[in-house]
Amino acid sequence: MVLAGLGTLGAALLGHVMVGVFFGIGLGLGLINAVLVRRSVTKITAKEHPLKSAMALNSAARLMVLSVIGLAIAFVFRPQGLGVVFGMALFQMLLVFSTTLPVARKLRSGAATQGRDGAEGDAS
C-alpha cells in the first residue's frame, strides 16, 4: 500500500497521476499472484504424493490469467495503463529479492561456520 501510494504521489508530481494509479493496480495483481502461489503450494504439498506437474500447470494457468489481465489493462488504457505492467514487474522483483536474500545469508553463514569447523578440525 505504501509503495502504491508513493508511486501514485510520484506520478502525480510528474503530472501523470493515472500512471501511478495503474502502477498500484499492478502491485495489487502481483500481491494476488503471491497469495495464490502460497495457497496452491499449501494445497498441493498437503497431498500424500504431491506432483510437480500439478504445480507447474497451476503456475502456468495463474501467470497466464494475471498476465492477460495486466496486458489488457495496459492496452485499453494506453499509454497510462502501462503502469500496471511496471507495477507487476516491480512486485515480482521485490518478491524474488525478499525470498532469496535470507536464503543467501543462511548459505553464507553455513559456509562460514563450516569453514571454521574445517579449519579447527585440520589443526587438531
UniProtKB/TrEMBL annotation:
InterPro entries assigned to the protein according to its UniProt record, in alphabetical order: ATP_synth_I
UniProt entry keywords in alphabetical sequence: Cell membrane, Membrane, Transmembrane, Transmembrane helix
UniProt membrane topology term: Multi-pass membrane protein
Keyword Membrane: yes
Positions of transmembrane segments: 12-36, 56-77, 83-104
Domain of life per record: Bacteria
Compartments in which it is found: Cell membrane
Single GO cellular component term: plasma membrane
Main subcellular location: membrane
Keyword Cell wall biogenesis/degradation among UniProt keywords: no
Annotated protein name in UniProt: ATP synthase subunit I
